[in-house]
Structure formats: structure tokens, C-alpha cells
Amino acid sequence: SQQGEEDPQALSIQEGENATMNCSYKTSINNLQWYRQNSGRGLVHLILIRSNEREKHSGRLRVTLDTSKKSSSLLITASRAADTASYFCATKGGTPRLTFGEGTQLTVNP
Amino acid sequence: GAVVSQHPSRVICKSGTSVKIECRSLDFQATTMFWYRQFPKQSLMLMATSNEGSKATYEQGVEKDKFLINHASLTLSTLTVTSAHPEDSSFYICSARDPGQGFSEQFFGPGTRLTVL
After folding, report:
1. Do residues A30 and A93 touch, judged by C-beta distance below 8 A?
2. Closest chain B residue to A88, measured at CA
3. Does B49 sit within 8 Å of A43, measured CB to CB?
4. Cβ contacts (< 8 Å) between A101 and chain B: which residues?
5. How far apart are CA A73 and CA A34, in angstroms?
6. Residue A41: which of B43, B103, B110 has the nearest Cβ?
7. Residue A108 burial (10 A CB sphere; 0-12, 13-18, 19+)
8. Is residue A21 within 8 Å of A87, Cβ to Cβ?
9. Residue A105: what are its φ and ψ, rounded to 5°?
10. Is B54 in CB contact (< 8 Å) with chain A?
11. Tens of pLDDT along chain A (110 residues)?
């Protein structure tokens, strides 16, 4: 079973607004990664945050990690219609395996 | 970033036939590749870890005789769905790690949509 849970499952916002997605996990991790998937396509790596980091930025993306709460958030600022996609968090422990969350479907309305 | 390709992108087959899906790392050598399955509107479920030159490691509940994995070279892994049935219809995605870019990030192929009639 999936160990990651994401909320919300679906998020619909207007262009220009910020989008925040949350991810929770259950076991200890080495790092947490966020991926984006357009409908019917493969995954694109967005950002990786290590277990000893608390916040990371990449362009319009901001990721936070709270290992005490076993949770992470992904913030997309100034959203665009092209940001419409599914977003998944994935955790990596001591093995090469990634465990994916359930995903958030983001719709950005023009 | 590193590029991973999959072939075919889409396949439709009759129940009982076998289907082979290829996963290639185009600009790097991948000692480890991963195979995932994704049902509509659901997350990715890891099926198996493919190791070059050795047997694949399957996740619990995944039948190794039904989903045959071969990783014969450092740039190619294949997944064969044997005696496919309609319940095997799904989106199959592979990924690989590029040693040259550290082992944390996985690069994903574009996926293969399998429909079994």
C-alpha cells in the first residue's frame, strides 16, 4: 500500500494564484521528491529536498519539509494554465526505491 | 537531464497474448531500472527493480512469472506481460537512475498504455 498521502486530492485555482499541496509519509526518509505528471505522460522531476533540509526553492516552486511531522508541502507561486497537471511526492529511504503519494490533481483556470 | 525512452507508447492486444515493453536509457548507463504500474487517477505502484546482469526484485504481490523482466544491458530493460488479461490494462512506466547525476533522482520514461481486449 502507498505510504504517502497527499492533500488535497484535487485543487482548482485561477491563473496567478498560488497553489499549495501537502504530502505526509510514515517512515524515516533520506529525501523527499516532487514530480509532475501531465495527463497520460511520464513523470518530470521538479525538486528534491534532503532530510536535513527544511526549505528549498526552485523558480516558482517552494518546498518545505518537516521531518518531525513527517510532512512536506509544495507551493507553486503565480500559477499558470500550463501548470495544470498531477503532482506527486515520493520518498526515498535507505534503498533505491521511491514510494509515491496518491497525488494532487491541479487545475489552473485561465 | 538524462533521457529515458519507452517503446511502444501504446499497445492494444487480445486477451491471452504476451506484450513486451522496452525501456532505454538514451544518454547514460543505468545499472538499475524500475518498473511501475499506474491505474487511472491513481498513483504509481512499484512493480519491480531491474538490475543489470541479475534477476529482478519484485514487490510483494507482483507475479514474477506474469511480469517477466530482463535487464540484459546497461541501457535496456524489458518488461513482458505474459498471457495478458483485461485486468492487466494499465499505464506502465519505467525509470532509471543516472550514476553521473547522483543516485537520488530517477528519470522516467513517457510510459506505455496497455489495453487488453
Report:
1. yes
2. B43
3. no
4. 43
5. 9
6. B110
7. buried
8. yes
9. -90, 115
10. no
11. 234 677 788 999 999 999 999 999 999 999 999 999 998 888 999 999 999 999 999 999 999 999 999 999 999 999 999 999 999 999 998 888 899 999 999 999 99
